[in-house]
Write a structure and sequence with these properties.
The chain has helices at 2-18, 40-51, 73-88; strands spanning 31-34, 101-104. By secondary structure, the protein is mainly alpha-helical. Helices cover 38% and strands 7% of the residues.
Length: 119
Amino acid sequence: MRTALRRLLPSVLILVLLTPGSDGDDLEKQWCIADEQTPDDILQAALDWACGPGGADCKMIQPNKPCYLPNTIKDHASYAFNSYWQRYKNHGGSCYFGAAAMVSDLNPSHGACQIESLP
């Protein structure tokens, strides 16, 4: 078993190193995104809180802004959850939102919509 693993490991390492987007820029970065299994009504309530009392910066998900499209509750919630979490994670803020969110190491940015990840 160990011999097979030793033979496989270099192939896996090469695959990871050659995968597009794995240039190392996003290593150790994390984003707070909406859980795809969460119903839209729960996401909407959490989105409303994040953009209101939570203090997330939701300007970029307004019409005619770079992160407005796709215009879905899931995408807007992901942006708002991440904005809140990046701002407050080092001060006790969490990426929970009543179990509507989760931490991901996959960068959710797309096109002109660049979603930040802070240390």
